Amino acid sequence: DDEDDEDDEDDEDEYRPRKLRKRKHKGYLTLTSKPDCIMGYTDEDGIPRAEMPCGCAFAADTMYQFTKSFFGNNLSESKAVCPMPQKTYCKGNDKQRLWPWALVFAIADLSDKEIAYYTNAINNRVSGSKNCPHKNCGAVTSRPDDLRISRVRCNVCNQSDWCWNCGKPWNHSGLGPICGNSDCMGAEIIKILNNCGKVKCEWSDTKSYGKQIPATRACPKCYSPLEHVVACKHIWCICCPHQFCFNCLGEWNKQCDHSKTCEYKEQKIN
Questions:
Q1: pLDDT at residue 75, rounded to an integer
Q2: Considering the entire predicted model, what is its pTM?
Q3: b/e code 185-220 from CB counts within 10 Å (16+ = b)
Q4: Which of 21, 25, 50, 114 would be 110's cystine partner, CB 3.0–4.6 Å?
Q5: Contacts 24+ apart (CB under 8 A), 25-28
Q6: Strands 31-32 and 49-51
Q7: Nearest by Cα to 120 from 136, 105, 135
Q8: Which own/partner pairs from 68-71 qualify as long-range (CB within 8 Å, at least 24 positions apart)?
Q9: Does residue 72 register a pLDDT over 90?
Q10: How many C-beta atoms lie closer than 10 Å to residue 6's C-beta?
């Protein structure tokens, strides 16, 4: 079944069906019979999948959702890394797990406008600089070394602080990521964490065993919201990819591992 209908390719509706454009990307996409790594689609579902350099398989819509999640829930990362756990699921090495954005965009079936939008976002993150939003300034301002800090002040005009993520005036205490603007990414993350609900802790290697803990935690490195579904307390962030303990938030293999009975830590994002 050829998925190369061109009629809806440049449709800006984000809910349009995403397709693998085999003719358009001939020689670039590698189709596979492997099941979709996240949604589990197989040949019986009639949904084609493309194989990534690491060996994992993704359908067009799955890759589109990954792309949206990467930029929508992440404050800093610019590299596309396979979201599947290494060794236990993804057999690729570190180099193979680092995906080319061009391949991600091709499989996600992005329109030219979407590619331009996401490419600009990547360039902003990679460059580590933005133009000061204050009127009559516009000077190039560097991002703080700590990616968790979103509060910025231009060294040229030295006017009031502004938010690195939304470019609006800083209306909150602290350094970030919460700037006080309701439409900023940081505020959305807090909303997700506050409304995530609770789950019963099933991990015997924690002091939280049998107690209710939040169903969603933010990655301590990039603040991407991550919902725990199954398996142990070891979490691999799909966006950065930082590894940490879902219970104590400690960095995996440094501050926590399965040999340690850790205590639950309340997450505070200021």
A1: 63
A2: 0.53
A3: bbbebbeebeeeeeeebebebbebeeeebbebbbbb
A4: 114
A5: 25/106, 28/103, 28/106
A6: antiparallel
A7: 105
A8: 68/14, 69/238, 69/239, 70/238, 70/239, 71/118, 71/121
A9: no
A10: 9
